[in-house]
Design brief:
about 10% helix, mainly beta, five-stranded antiparallel sheet, elongated
Length: about 160
Amino acid sequence: MKKTFFLILSVGFLATLFSCQDEFCLEPTTPNLTVRFYDKDTVENTKALNLIVWIGSGTDSVALPDYVGTSIDSLSLPLDTQNTFVDYHFAILDSVGSQEEISITYSTEDVYVSKACGFKSIFHDVTFTNTTNSEWLSKSEQLSTEITNETEAHVKIFH
């Protein structure tokens, strides 16, 4: 009797142990703000820059390693889901006085994706403001006030 009970208990335990299927998150997660750089003279053409990009101000600033001295025509910038604003700084590599400060304000909404993915944040009422003027950034154009995906640009910067 004890052997039968132990056998049934063991088979039941092994069945539950190996019957679970792993779930993988295949859905997109919280989107980043996508910024594309364009030629100010030929506005339909993208134009790459050698930039240094950092977030925050003063001693709390942190450089984004993917964007230090890399020639790029677009940026994918994370927004802080715990706040309603973030400040980024852009500077052209090897160009003194080229720093631009960009302020981004927004509201967040958490959306349930699935059991495997959990929640993601989407951003509403996004505003993109250039708070300095070092003259390399001639103008910016905000394309969307909602950030729900990263498949298209949200902001164009002309230089």
